[in-house]
Design a protein that fits this description.
Butyryl-CoA Dehydrogenase, subunit A, domain 2, 10 strands, Butyryl-CoA Dehydrogenase, subunit A, domain 3, alpha+beta, binds flavin-adenine dinucleotide
């Protein structure tokens, strides 16, 4: 069940809309009958070849290596669309493509790319990416124990990895381990490719069953028992894999953000359909004012999260720095999607709790994604730390002045409608900056990095909201300029901006309060934003649902 009208409204780009439509046709034609036959915990071993045959594998892999030659942005409708049918299919694809295949693409020689990529992009081999270990996930780079030990003839891989998606079914493993030279010296985190044929006895896989969600995925603990790795199976220069893995994770985070939005879209569509059929007396549940408000908020969350994900993706496609923004997009998208999935269960009542209606499955599947590929807490801490890293190249919080200029340059019709929202955002921005300065001034080191974790997490959230508000503004201006911004789009954008501005003003005061401080300037900003957004309210209330038309 897929609310395609809503997706078209979100994507707004003809090529992406066509791609999303093709994914839906593929889903109806191939995935629905396949899923019907598949057991609830059965690994979908025919899925990757099926996706390859229909042109949905290797989306962002260059054609010379057997891929589709597209961009990461082009991958978004693919992973999102597949997730709307089944989260496990999408996660199987994400581990194979966004992690393992991308590592080979970003971190190997031309010869290695020619050797491995065509089979991976063509779905003839399935791959797993092995980073996490039993004793370390979030902190894996500071406590990695798997070893690649150099010998006169090559390398020996030993160690244990855990929670590896596709682990028991993989033909090919990309393994990241600490390399040790023959004299016992550490030579850095290094990646290697290991093919299963010929090594079955020294790759010991244990399936990890009984998961909360993503039940059709293959999750495994893997022991590499002194496996021989030839020199030409070492990926890239020795010691380079830490950097490559971090780049892989940036792209991976964008991919799972789109995945989780596919789960959320399906949940929203199911909630709309169900509430229309559930009668309360003579009126449907859908037509209750409270239900409309809930559904509108779900739609708004989805739209806003997409703006963040696309913005980070476009930077990745232009090879611009986007580590922090990919983290912001992932945290926001995963948490928004979880709320949508949860609300959909609530709207379906008792039926929502039953497995037949799939909304509970979407929730369980989505739940993984605030943990995997960077737990929300870790990403928030990294966002806060990066706020003061000079030269990171990321313009994290475009000032409202520059946003205002952008809006004026891009669009002539928007400034009047958008003016009050931008003023509110400007005040929120100002409150956040003042709160940060006061907190930094209060700390003897004068650095944000010495903030306690609880404060750092709040700072990261405020910065994220301000950044996303900027992306929402830019997206609305671009759409209005192209003449494709509907009343819905503008109302959603303005509604988010109002809430973000008020929230940031309020939370900035709360930040100070937690440090035993207060500031009248922040109070006056808050009161001004309250006034602006209250007067602006008619522009943001009760959007008719796009999902209704789908
Ligand atoms: C179904 C599934 C599939 C997976 N697939 C793969 C895969 O294909 N390949 C792969 O390599 N890995 C995979 N993973 C592993 C996943 O990436 C890790 O689970 C994730 O990185 C978190 O690591 P962890 O489980 O060790 O949790 P931990 O790192 O122990 O974190 C536990 C909690 O502590 C918090 N925390 C950690 N450190 C700090 C700190 N310094 N301060 C405050 N809070 C902190 C975290 O935010 C989290 O809430 C998968 C996991 C699952 C469940």
């Amino acid at each position: 069940m897929v609310a395609h009208g809503l997706l078209a409204e979100i994507l707004q780009d003809d090529d992406l809309i066509l791609l999303a439509k093709a994914v839906r046709e593929f889903g109806e034609r191939e995935l629905v009958p396949y899923l019907r036959k598949l057991g609830k915990e059965e690994f979908p071993d025919k899925f990757l070849p099926l996706a390859a045959r229909s042109g949905f594998l290797g989306t962002a892999i260059p054609t010379e290596f057997g891929g589709q030659g597209g961009t990461l942005e082009g991958f978004l409708p693919v992973i999102e669309g597949i997730a709307a049918y089944d989260g496990s299919l999408a996660l199987t694809l994400a581990a194979h493509e966004s992690l393992a295949t991308t590592h080979v693409l970003l971190g190997s020689s031309a010869e290695q790319k020619r050797k491995y990529l065509p089979d991976l992009a063509g779905g003839r081999k399935i791959a797993a990416w092995c980073l996490t270990e039993p004793q370390a996930g979030s902190n894996i780079f500071s406590d990695m124990r798997s070893k690649l030990s150099r010998t006169p003839k090559g390398w020996i891989l030993s160690g244990e990895k855990t929670f590896i998606t596709n682990g028991c079914h993989a033909d090919l493993y990309v393994v990241i381990a600490r390399a040790i030279d023959q004299d016992g010296q550490e030579v850095g985190v290094t990646g290697c490719v290991l093919e299963r044929p010929g090594n079955q006895n020294s790759i010991i896989c244990t399936p990890l069953h009984s998961k909360m969600g993503m039940c059709r995925t293959d999750t495994a603990a893997i022991k590499f028992d002194n496996v021989f790795i030839a020199e030409d199976s070492i990926l890239g220069p020795v010691g380079s894999a830490g950097q490559v893995a971090r780049r892989v994770l940036i792209r991976g985070r964008i991919g799972v953000a789109a995945l989780v939005l596919g789960l959320a879209r399906d949940s929203l569509a199911r909630a709309v359909n169900y509430t229309k059929t559930r009668m309360i007396g003579k009126t449907s549940l859908f037509d209750q004012q409270l239900t409309r408000t809930k559904l509108s908020q779900m739609e708004e969350g989805l739209w806003v999260a997409w703006q963040a994900v696309r913005s980070a993706t476009q930077l990745a496609d232009q090879s611009k720095p986007c580590k922090v923004r990919a983290s912001m997009a992932k945290v926001f998208a995963t948490e928004t999607a979880l709320r949508i999935a949860d609300e959909a269960i609530q709207l379906l009542g008792g039926y929502g709790y039953m497995t037949d209606y799939k909304v509970e499955q979407n929730y369980r599947d989505a739940r993984l994604l605030t943990i995997g590929e960077g737990a929300s807490e870790i990403l928030r801490l990294a966002i806060a730390k990066n706020l003061e890293t000079p030269g990171s190249g990321e313009d994290l919080m475009p000032s409202p002045e520059s946003l205002g200029r952008d809006v004026e340059l891009t669009c002539t019709s928007l400034p009047t409608l958008w003016g009050p929202s931008l003023n509110a955002l400007k005040l929120a921005h100002n409150s956040f900056q003042m709160a940060l300065e006061r907190i930094k001034g209060d700390d003897p080191s004068g650095h944000l990095s010495s903030l306690c974790q609880t404060t750092a997490i709040k700072v990261a959230d405020l910065a994220t909201r301000l950044w996303i508000a900027g992306q929402v503004t830019r997206a609305a201006a671009q759409l209005a300029n192209r003449g494709t911004a509907s009343g819905n789009t503008l109302r959603r954008g303005k509604s988010f901006l109002a809430k973000a501005s008020l929230g940031v003003c309020h939370q900035s005061m709360e930040l100070l309060r937690a440090h035993g401080m207060s500031d009248d300037r922040l109070l006056s900003n808050y009161s001004a934003v309250l006034q602006i957004t209250a007067q602006d309210r008619p522009f943001e209330s009760f959007p008719p649902l796009v999902a209704e038309r789908s």
